[in-house]
Inverse folding.
C-alpha cells in the first residue's frame, strides 16, 4: 500500500481538530499539522505529497504562500477557505491549485473525495516513474 505525506496548514484550532479527526481515519496518510505558512515551509524537506492550506493565514497571504509552495516542492495543493470570491478561486486554480474547497457543511466530504483522487493520481505517477527507471 502506498503511503502519502500530507501537510495541513490551518490556524483555526477548532477546524484543525475537525480535520485531524477526519484524516486520522485514513491509514495510508502521514499527517503533519501546521498553524502557519512559515512552519510549513520550514518542513518541506519531509517532501509532502499533498498540502491542504487555509487561504487566510496569520503570516503569509494565500496566493503568496501558494507561489512559495509551487516554487519549492512538487506537492499537490488544496485550498480550504471560507472566502468564496470567484476571481480569487480562478486566480488560484490558474496558479496551480489542484482544488479549491469552500468551508461549509459538506467540506469534509469534498476533501475526502479530493484526497482520494489525489492518492490515485500520485500512485499512478509513482508507477510510471518506476517503469521508466
Amino acid at each position: 500500500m502506498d503511503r502519502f505525506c500530507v501537510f495541513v496548514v490551518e490556524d483555526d484550532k477548532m477546524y484543525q481538530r475537525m480535520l485531524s479527526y477526519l484524516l486520522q481515519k485514513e491509514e495510508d496518510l502521514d499527517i503533519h499539522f501546521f498553524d502557519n505558512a512559515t512552519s510549513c515551509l520550514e518542513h518541506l524537506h519531509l517532501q509532502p505529497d499533498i498540502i491542504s492550506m487555509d487561504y487566510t493565514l496569520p503570516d503569509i497571504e494565500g496566493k503568496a504562500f501558494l507561489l512559495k509552495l509551487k516554487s519549492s516542492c512538487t506537492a499537490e495543493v488544496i485550498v480550504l477557505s471560507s472566502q468564496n470570491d470567484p476571481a480569487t478561486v480562478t486566480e488560484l486554480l490558474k496558479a496551480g491549485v489542484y482544488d479549491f474547497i469552500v468551508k461549509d457543511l459538506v467540506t469534509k466530504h469534498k476533501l475526502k473525495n479530493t484526497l482520494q483522487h489525489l492518492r490515485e493520481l500520485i500512485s499512478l505517477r509513482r508507477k510510471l516513474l518506476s517503469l521508466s527507471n
